[in-house]
Amino acid sequence: MTRTTRIAPSILSADFSRLGDEVRALEAAGADLIHFDVMDNHYVPNLTVGPMVCAAVRPHVSIPIDVHLMVAPVDRIIPEFANAGANLITFHPEASAHVDRTLQLIRDCGCKAGLAFNPATPLHLLDHVMDRLDMVLLMSVNPGFGGQGFIASAIAKLHGVRARIDAHAAAGGQPIWLEVDGGVKVDNIAEIGAAGADTFVAGSAIFGAPDPDGGYRNVFGKLRKAVGGS
Questions:
Q1: pTM for the whole thing?
Q2: Catalytic annotation present for 181
């Protein structure tokens, strides 16, 4: 089965001194989403961006903003990101006292809702919330820092999530994207896609390889060609 593929560059690897220029160049090069890695120096050992940066970026792009919350507790900040222009908000189950309630909060704020799983987090929680999900995000590195190598065990986990999503769709359920984040490169994106991913977060693979003349368009083309997407 042919799936739509989406590339979501992570601004974690961007030049923050010229962030507006960066995100405009990403959209022009063919980005499908702008991915925000939000870290609080509590749930993960790093501190990144908040709703003000999301609000600052929003006028510069027309594509969706995909916010990955690596913060705990998570509920209080969800409405702030929704008001700042986020379109899709994903969180980790460990960061919520009531996962079902947090998913509903995201939807009540007008955003699509996703659930994120760390490399060592089991998937059984999915069996109880599939009807509330728009996306599942699998971390293929331990969250906290960009530039890490892909954890090979994520491939088997991707197969497991894809099987759940396909079974849910076959039973009449809503579409659910399967996003992977961490260590995605031109030389491994085909294997990752074959395992079931349809949405690919890439940071250093994109920002580390801009073409002097074509900006980011060249690396986007290489990623799409490797994964077999348009």
A1: 0.94
A2: yes
Annotated catalytic residue within 32, 37, 66, 134: 37
Distance between CA atoms of residues 94 and 220, nearest Å: 33
Is 53 a residue whose pLDDT tops 80? yes
Report whether 219 contacts 209 (CB < 8 A).
yes
From residue 107, alpha-carbon distances to 33, 100, 159, 164, 167 in Å are 19, 11, 27, 21, 23
Decide if 1 is inside a domain: no
In a domain, 78, yes or no: yes
Residues recorded for the chain: 230
* pLDDT (average), residues 205-226: 82
Query: At 89, which CATH number?
Result: 3.20.20.70
32, 40, 134, 181: the catalytic one is 181
Range of the structural domain that residue 176 is part of? 6-227
Q: Which helix (H) or strand (E) holds 179?
A: strand 177-181
Number of domains into which the chain is organized? 1
User: What b/e sequence results for 37-76 when a residue is b if at least 16 CB atoms lie within 10 Å of its CB, and e otherwise?
Assistant: bbbbeebbeeebbbbebbbebbebbebbbbbbbbbbebbe
Query: Which CA distances in Å does 229 have to 39, 110, 155, 169?
Result: 30, 29, 19, 21
How far is residue 164's CA from residue 142's CA, in Å, rounded to a whole number? 23
